């Protein structure tokens, strides 16, 4: 199922009517809301979209977005307890809003570990054709060494945070989906997912696949299989549908350098597809991306037909 992400909203979008119009006018049939919508307009936006009959299929944390721009997002596995608590509170608020607008999924983006970022140097070496050279190999080894020094405490902090969120997920009947990181020091990485699956077996916790993030790590030799093995790919609840431009910028699906057919080949057909586009993109760009995805059969399964909201169970009572 394809859904339009609120990432398309230009920064100056403020009114409820304009926000709703930009999300519904393309006629995609479902929407995903995120940090582009602030707390002042989110209740009205949710009300109008739900009233239109268009489902809100997911919220991306934080939603509502912060009132003021900030350099970094708080992390669920931060060593600083105040930062960690701030991240938990934002996720809990997003879960509450998801319950109000009957969105069944909340997506949480990967954050970074407190280790040096060797990404720019690795990317430069890769661009020079030296991605497999000695310097690049040593950088990757040093990165893994420093990650192992901090990953124990980060893992404990992440599990502590997830345990609190999952309590709310169970109560609200919402699934939590974690994205894969694109940065070298992002966390949790693909290789952490089997352990997460074991630790939280049976919990409403799943994966959300970002093909651009995966390709960025592949380009510098940090990832081989985009979705992991087939068993791990089954756990993907949804994915971003976007492309990577020549200068590393996000562009519309089909306009960039990624072979999306290959990148999304293991994503289950029933998984949600979040159409991510540059802010303020025109309607023609949205239509072109949709046409490309449908032509390449990357738009996923069609929405399920509505069911009877009052199913009859058993025999009717005798009069």
Gist of the model:
The protein is α/β, with parallel strands linked by helices. It has ten helices and twelve strands. The longest helix is centred in the middle third of the chain and has 39 residues, at 134-172.
Keywords:
single chain, 319 residues, alpha/beta, TIM Barrel, eight-stranded parallel β-barrel, two-stranded antiparallel sheet, 10 helices, 12 strands, 14% strand
Task: Describe the 3D structure.
With 319 residues, the protein is of the alpha/beta class. It has helices at residues 16-24, 42-51, 81-100, 119-127, 134-172, 193-199, 211-219, 230-233, 260-263, 283-295, and strands at residues 2-5, 31-33, 56-60, 105-108, 111-112, 175-179, 186-187, 205-209, 236-241, 243-244, 250-251, 272-275. It has a single domain (2-295), classed as TIM Barrel. Helix content is 39%, strand content 14%. Helix 1 (16-24) packs across helix 2 (42-51), helix 3 packs across helix 5 and helix 4 packs across helix 5. Mean pLDDT is 88; it is low at 306-319.
């Amino acid at each position: 199922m394809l859904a339009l992400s609120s990432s398309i909203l230009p920064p100056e979008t403020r009114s409820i009517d304009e926000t709703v119009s930009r999300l519904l006018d393309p006629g995609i049939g479902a929407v995903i809301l995120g940090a582009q919508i602030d707390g002042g307009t989110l209740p009205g936006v949710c009300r109008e979209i739900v009233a239109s009959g268009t489902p809100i299929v997911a919220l991306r944390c934080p939603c509502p977005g912060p009132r003021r721009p900030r350099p970094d997002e708080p992390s669920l596995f931060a060593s600083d307890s105040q930062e960690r608590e701030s991240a938990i509170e934002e996720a809990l608020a997003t879960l509450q809003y998801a319950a109000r607008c009957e969105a069944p999924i909340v997506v949480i983006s990967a954050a970074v570990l407190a280790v040096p970022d060797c990404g720019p140097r690795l990317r430069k070496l890769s661009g020079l054709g030296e991605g497999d050279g000695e310097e690049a190999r040593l950088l990757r080894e040093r990165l893994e060494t420093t990650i192992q020094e901090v990953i124990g405490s980060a893992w404990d902090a992440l599990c502590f945070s997830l345990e609190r969120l999952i309590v709310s997920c169970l109560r609200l009947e919402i699934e939590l989906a974690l994205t894969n990181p694109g940065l070298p020091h992002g966390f949790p990485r693909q290789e952490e997912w089997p352990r997460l699956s074991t630790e939280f077996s049976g919990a409403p916790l799943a994966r959300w696949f970002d093909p651009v993030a995966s390709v960025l790590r592949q380009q510098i030799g940090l990832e081989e299989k985009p979705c992991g093995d087939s068993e791990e790919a089954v756990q993907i609840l949804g994915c971003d549908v976007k492309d990577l431009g020549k200068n590393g910028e996000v562009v519309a699906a089909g306009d960039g350098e990624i072979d999306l057919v290959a990148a999304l080949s293991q994503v289950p057909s029933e998984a949600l597809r979040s159409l991510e586009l540059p802010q303020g993109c025109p309607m023609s760009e949205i239509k072109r991306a949709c046409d490309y995805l449908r032509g390449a059969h990357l738009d996923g399964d069609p929405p399920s037909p509505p069911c009877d909201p009052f199913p009859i169970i058993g025999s009717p009572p005798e009069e």
